[in-house]
Every structure is written in C-alpha cells, then in structure tokens.
Design a protein that fits this description.
Elements (H helix, E strand, L loop, with lengths): L1 H16 L11 E12 L4 E12 L4 E12 L2 E7 L5 E4 L2 E13 L20 E10 L5 E9 L5 H9 L3 E8 L3 E18 L6 E13 L7 E12 L2 E8 L3 E3 L3 E12 L19 E10 L3 E8 L5
Antiparallel strand pairs: 1-2, 2-6, 3-4, 3-5, 3-7, 4-6, 7-8, 9-10, 10-11, 11-15, 12-13, 12-14, 12-16, 13-15, 16-17
C-alpha cells in the first residue's frame, strides 16, 4: 500500500514537470478567472474572493501555496498570494473553485495602468500567471505553473454600452440676453488611449465622443472648456480630472476628441481599481462642471453619464 502511494506521488510529479505529448496532465487548465468580491485591507492592500473555473482530466489532487501575478501589456501590475496552509481539493472534471487571496500592487507600478482595460480601441494584453504546489493528498508534490489570458474580456464594449445612446435635453437661460436649447445625444464613445507613467499616481486619457447636437441657434456653435470633475467608482471618488482644451460644439452629428488628465486622491486605496475586473463591475462616472462660452460664459454642473450600467 505504501509502495503504491509513493508510485502515485512520483507519477504526479512527473506529470507536472514533463511536457511530452504523452503527458495527460498537460490538459489540466484554468478556463476562467473572476474576482467575486474585493475588500480593502489597510491603505494599500486588499483581500479578494476569487473564482477559478478549472478543467481537470486527471485524478484528484490538491493545490496549495497559490500565488499569481496580473500582467498588463507584459508589465507586472498586481500580486495575489494565499497562505501555504490554504488548500484546494481538485476533483476530476470541470468545476468551480473559490478561495481568498491577498492583493498588493507591484512596486513602482502606476495604479491607473488598469484603466487601459477600458480602451475600446487597441485594448491591452491582460494575463494572469498562476503558480501553486500540486500534490496527491498528503504526499509529495511539485510546482505547477499555468498562464491564463484574460484579454478576451471585452471591457471596451462595457464602456460603449454604458455611454452610447445617452440622450439629453438642456435649456440654458440668461434673462437679459438669450435662451439656448440643446437637444441630442451621445452616439458613440471610445477610450482611445490611457497613458500612466510608472512611479506616479497620475494619468492622461484621450477620449472620442460622438455627439448629435440639434437646435443650437448660434452661427458658430458654442465653445466648451475648463472641464473639472471627480472620477467616481460607484459611490467613491478615486481621482480628480481636468481638461483645459477648448472644444467648439457645432449643430451637427460629429466626432469630438478630448484629452483629460487625472490624479489619484491621497486617501484612495489603489488596489480597489481591480474592481474593474469583477463580473459585477462598478459604475464609473464623472461629476463636475464645465464652462460654456456663448458670447457670454456660463459654468454648468454635469454628471456623465447619468445612466446606470
């Protein structure tokens, strides 16, 4: 009996280390990865409750000492670690496994780098490198390394669905001069790029906004400038953004480009930006003001977009 157990343990170790085409363990794979819950743990860490979808065609075994590195375009962004004492019993077949893990951002990384997953044009490569100890229950084992490509998650489509189709009807009044009525809607929305320099907590993003504006009773349209807003995730503000660009808005269906820059709030836990990877994603929206130049200037408050996801 003891001899049989030793043989089984050795066989599993060979399965983990050998990559020949005759190795049945090569078909073990991670089919899905989801962050189900994310809770703050101090000022710069978090605890995540994770769901793994697994396909195990071989005999049952256990995983322990699970760790992972999340990479965005090849750059290490966050580390996930679990204590060696926490074990997952992997049965044969397809299954869902859940476990808690500690999350820390990698040293020197810009937390805003994760905003690049919201790009609707040329989204980044998103990859999870997982390492764990695999062993027959109670026996010796070996290290298992698997990479999971998360780039197939279309976060950009999530953004476009949220914003496109938004309509508005706004009346601006100045008792002495004029009355301006704006009608129309957002026909398209793209996050073209996100630039997040290493070692900082700032970012710059180029946005492309399709607007269909009607009934602007001015020959040269109107000028929008001096955007200043809070960038919110659900009920929490995580960054302050601004744009000094002057944009001429015309009474036509047109694509407008705008560049915004932002800085993270000092009291925000940057690990919480990983909420963007959850299946139940948070609502991202802006609340602030902009300056409208109609020949005279009006400061307008706004919330964009108003609709919920």
């Amino acid at each position: 009996m003891k001899s049989s157990r030793i043989i089984s343990t050795v066989s599993l170790a060979v399965c983990l280390l050998v990559t020949s085409c005759g190795n049945p363990f090569k078909d073990f794979k991670i089919e899905s990865f989801e962050i189900v819950q994310l809770k703050e743990n101090g000022a710069n860490a978090a605890t995540a409750f994770v769901e793994l979808g697994l396909d195990n065609p071989v005999a049952a075994f256990e995983l322990s000492g699970i760790s992972a590195i999340l990479k965005i375009d090849g750059q290490e962004y966050a580390r996930l670690t679990t204590p060696e004492s926490e074990k997952l019993i992997i049965s044969k077949g397809k299954q869902k496994q859940h476990f808690s893990t500690d999350v820390h951002l990698c040293e020197g990384v810009n937390p805003f780098l994760i905003l690049s997953v919201l790009q609707t044009i040329n989204g980044p490569s998103l990859k999870l490198d997982i390492e764990a100890r695999a062993a027959v229950r109670g026996g010796a084992g070996a290290r298992l390394k698997i990479s999971k490509d998360l780039s197939d998650k279309d976060f950009g489509a999530y953004v476009k669905k949220y914003v496109s189709g938004m309509t508005f009807n706004k009346v601006l009044k100045d008792l002495k001069i004029t009355k301006l009525q704006l009608q129309g809607g957002v026909t398209d929305f793209d996050v073209v790029s996100v630039t997040a320099p290493e070692g900082t907590r700032s970012f710059e993003s180029e946005l492309r906004l399709g607007l269909d504006i009607k009934d602007v009773p001015l020959k040269d349209g109107l000028i929008v400038s001096d955007i200043c807003a809070d960038l919110n995730m659900d009920s929490e503000t995580f960054a302050v953004i601004s744009s000094r660009e002057r944009q001429s808005i015309e009474a036509a269906d047109k694509i407008y480009a705008i560049v915004i820059s932002g800085d993270m709030k000092d009291d925000f836990n940057p690990c919480m930006l990983l909420s963007l990877l959850k299946e139940d994603k948070p609502r991202i929206f802006l609340t602030g003001s902009l300056l409208v130049d109609l020949g005279f200037k009006i400061k307008l408050p706004f919330t964009f977009p108003k609709a919920s996801m």
